[in-house]
Design brief:
The protein is α/β, with parallel strands linked by helices. It contains 6 helices and 7 strands. Helices cover 39% and strands 23% of the residues. The protein starts with a helix and ends with a helix.
Length: 189
């Protein structure tokens, strides 16, 4: 095992979400170990700032090579809000309410972004972000993640929830972030 695989093999993925772990294993090709840590999440619209804070907090607790992720959904109708704060919007008004909010403001455009922060704790840090433009629609499909059923990627006619895991991996912001992380870690080899 060389490059990215070797570095990821000794990495713990900080998540308690089984579906996220399965997706990460599929996208990385590595049987990642996971640990569920309750981390403070700073209130910021800057995805990279949130990632760095989570990564540093996780490192201070674990002290070993680790990976954290963060996802954002930025609505054009709300000038990029909620971004990384999407979790709280979904908790408050749900995915259907989020899509209705964009519709009420007359702009269904949205950008999905996922970021990954990896560190070996010895000075190496890799932070990558993947992004996909799309639009919000009435819920369709079986959602695996919070807003999958309302996000239709640009150029497509199906929501993330209507795609197979492999189809979604090929085009999603998280898939793009994982491919970027693997490429960056391969450079260390």
């Amino acid at each position: 095992m060389r490059g990215a695989g070797q570095r990821l093999a000794g990495t713990v993925f900080v998540t308690g979400n089984r579906m996220k772990l399965a997706e990460a294993r599929r996208l990385s090709g590595v049987d990642l170990e996971a640990v569920d840590l309750e981390l403070p999440e700073i209130q910021s619209l800057d995805l990279e700032e949130v990632l760095r804070a989570k990564g540093e907090a996780a490192w201070s607790r674990l002290g070993r090579p680790l990976l954290v992720d963060e996802t954002a959904l930025s609505l054009s109708a709300l000038n990029g809000f909620p971004g990384p704060l999407i979790k709280w919007m979904l908790d408050s008004i749900g995915s259907e309410g989020t899509a209705r909010l964009a519709e009420l403001h007359g702009d269904l455009r949205a950008e999905a972004r996922s970021g990954l922060y990896w560190t070996d704790g010895e000075g190496a840090v890799v932070l990558v972000v993947g992004a996909v433009a799309g639009r919000l629609v009435a819920p369709r499909g079986t959602a695996r993640f919070g807003w999958d059923a309302i996000f239709e990627p640009e150029g497509g006619d199906r929501t993330y929830a209507e795609l197979s895991p492999g189809e979604k991996d090929a085009i999603s912001q998280r898939g793009k972030a994982w491919r970027a992380l693997v490429a960056e870690l391969d450079r260390f080899a």
